[in-house]
Amino acid sequence: MWPLIRRELDGMVTISLKKSFQTYTVFGLVLVLLMWLFGPSAIDYLEKDLISLLIFLIGMLSAGMNMLSVMEDDAASKQLAFLQTLPVRESDIVHAKFLSTLLLGGFIFVWVSVLVSANLVINDVWTIESWMVVFLFLAVLVLLMAGNLLWYFCRGGLHNGWMNYLLLVAGALVLLYLGFYRPSGISQPFLYGMSLGFSVLAYLICWWAATTRVNKKGFPKEVDDPEREKMKEHAEELKRRYAERQSEKNHGK
Fold first, then answer.
1. What is the tens place of the pLDDT at every residue in 14-66?
2. Organism's domain of life (predicted)?
3. So where are the chain's domains?
4. Whole-prediction pTM
């Protein structure tokens, strides 16, 4: 199964993903430095909690859009159909997808934790309790991954990504309410720990449900995104027209 996991990770960690993480990292550090330069009370929209929220949203967006891109590519190239031709169990294919996605989520969590820690340290407000808000981000991230994976193994693709976008919006609202509105009467460490425990349980349930579904009914038929196919056809048409114009110019000479 480990070769399958390495294969999944190779597909996830593309050049475009590396470039996007570099961009997000620079953007996050710029936000932290602006906070340090202007101070927490100089400009309201540079308040430290808002910067942490922006870092969380960037991390969620990068994870969600990467999953959408990878799964759309898999559906377009019929990866599930190809993997079934290999001498591996169907359940191992599901396990490899869930494990590799979990590893990618761990990388994003570490990246977000470093940026949030830098924000708290620079503003001299770092404490264990204030830092524990990153576990709320991890909880939302795990739910995002679980929902996308279960939908993928039930439908054979993310189909325009509406489920991914719905999960992103819901996750952003949860982060805003629980992490920064902070409902009174509930201990923050308890709230974050409970949220993370619930998310891990949901991830395991989705994992079990996807494996059970595949064992009983097999993999769903992979369907490419119609809009993606239209874009490919449009790109091919533009290439053809360009080639015709170049040919006409050459003949004119």
1. 544 555 555 555 555 665 565 556 555 544 444 667 777 777 877 787 777 77
2. Bacteria
3. 2-220, 223-253
4. 0.71
